[in-house]
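Shape is hard to put into words, and the shape of a protein is harder than most. The fold becomes a row of whole numbers, each drawn from a learned catalogue of backbone shapes. The outcome of that step, for a single protein, is printed below.
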Amino acid sequence: MSPQTNILTHWTNTQLPGSGELFIDHVAFFVDGMDGASGALEQLGFTATPLAPQSNARPDGPPPVPVGLANRCVMLERGYLEVLAIHKETDNPLLIQHRDALARHIGLHLLAFSTDDTETLCKNLQSNGFDALDPVALRRTVETEAGEQELRFRVQRVQPGQMPEGRVQALEHLTPNALWQQRWMTHPNGARALTDLLMLDENPEDAAQRYQRFTGREAIDHDGAVLLVTDRGRLTIATPKWIVSRLPDAPLPPAPAFVACALDADIAQAHRCLEANGLTLNHTNASGFWLAAPPALGGVVVFADALEGVPWLRS
């Protein structure tokens, strides 16, 4: 692995990746019920999109096939957060994966990168030793201020079990304006962008090797942890002991697992909002704080307005 360099601060300030770029697009919380999770999002100061059942496009055209999961999303100026719950019973294997994930813990279980070309990514994954599934076309109808529009994207996944910490995938957004609607992008807590994800693993260097093969990016050493920087967004992989030293008393799921996400935000606004909502904040410094999300959502959320405000990145 390479030594730490100024790559730590790299950030391509666009919503979608350009040719050859790879972003951290979004992360997802797997929850046991959407009602409780929706209340947790509100308490955290987020504006969430309406409940949306997921479906897969048929090869021969409509109607689409229900997946059985439904989501609500927190749309940000850059990236987003997703909350997933079972909506109806189907034979889709994603429902089995969802239940298996919940048996481990409620919280962060999905990391989605974004790419401009899922077909090329699929070939690269296969060349790098992954059992990559064919890209899947997903679509659904969403309400916009101009009326109904079709939301379309392609998802690249690998066979379950190759990334034991959760579902790791990549998306190619085809209708971004239908997803990032301005009316859902203003939040009482001042959140603006998804910047970081923290992952727990007993062997961070081994895990980093998998992500290097998945992303084509080289991991770097970071003060005893391993850091992978994409063209927009960072993934830090560390041991339980290392994480506890940065997030004392934070709830940690069994390894391997995603533990926390960090958001760029207006810190003063976030502080006022979350304290008014009765939440306990853990201050990293003047540039950031973190908190355990309500149990119905799970995980840890960081609000920061500078790199040093993210507790696992501070010097």
